[in-house]
Amino acid sequence: MSEELYRPGLEGIIAGETEVSTVEQDSLAYRGYRIEGLAEHASFEEVAYLLLEGELPTAPQLADFRKRLDQHRAIQPEIVETVRMIPKSVGGMDVLRTGVSMAGHFDVAKGDERPALVERAIHALAVVPSIIAARLRLLDGKEPIDPKPGLSHAAQFLYMAFGKAPSELEEKLLNLTLVLYAEHEFNASAFAARVCASTLSDLYSAMVTGIATLKGPLHGGANEEAMKLISRFKSGDEAKAWTEEGIKNKAKIMGFGHRVYKNGDHRARILEPLMADLARERNQQAKLDVYFAIKNTVFDRKQIHMNVDYPCGLTYYLMGLPIDIYTPLFVASRVSGWAAHYIEQYTNNRIIRPRSRYVGPALRDYISVSERG
Ligand code: SDX
What global pTM score does this model have? Predict the structure, then answer.
């Protein structure tokens, strides 16, 4: 066997080739377009199209893509009833895992040629915000709201969740987080979706795989955990003291650190100033003091930078969104990246099957139960 290549957690291992994105210390780019430009100028729909089709859409292509998203937004009554039956205590990511799994039973395409895969990807993209919004309404004792054609992806979610069109600022901020969250190379959930694709399983199963993987607090679940942490403190001093103690006790501070980025997460740097403006506009200076106290203490003590989940949690809080949908909103965006990886793997495939280094007991003979005492 060739020289054994083993790194815990596959750290630094090149596990495949991709044209979808590059994640480097000095740049993050989707299909060659730097995240800074996309964050400043692009709608999430443009980014989703770029990830799925490899090019930014022309105006007619974007209009058609938006129309196809609208065509798939309404969720079947069976899905609504399933979501209604899920106990209220069940978290948003587990609800979404079930909802997307149900959506897969209403497949929108035939066969497995690329156009069919793209249609399923658009279906998954469209239903995720609708499922999240439906759950919010049902938890509030209200019936889900039907989608309103013509709204942007971000506005559509806020409209279906809260029954009114969002302010321009809320739509812009949600759109920005969706652009920032859309894709990130071979992160754990994207790689899991690729493993699923590599067995030639279906796209909906790969999306459910992604949801189940992103849920973990070491991955997408960190945006909720980071906000829960910030909510614990009334002042910067209190937050600083807790953080110092936590670091001393080797606690993992949610929203910080990254397997690839060691000089900071480009996405966090883009989002933070806009989040801070919103905090000041909404008289939440105390939350901002706590936010910076934790961030500065983690960096001062461990030279660890924040990742995108840290400012994103507080952004969603400032927008008045319930914490339980923060990671589901990450899914509403990352379905685009997962689907791009699924299609890339599925259409140029070799099953993903690594080896392991055996460190268990040496070979030994069977002993009958009577001899085992
Ligand atoms: C996402 O991969 C992606 O691209 C993911 C993502 C995407 O867009 O898909 O960017 C989204 O998942 C962002 C990460 C969100 N997760 C968190 O914020 C959870 C907290 N972060 C850590 O658990 C950790 O930083 C990871 C999981 C993100 C990375 O883990 P690694 O690369 O295995 O790093 P490690 O745990 O080996 O830590 C290396 C050192 C350790 O110190 P020592 O034990 O060597 O002294 O850094 C320390 C760790 O203790 N460290 C932290 C820390 N993160 C790393 N210490 C305190 N708090 C932290 N958050």
Answer: 0.97
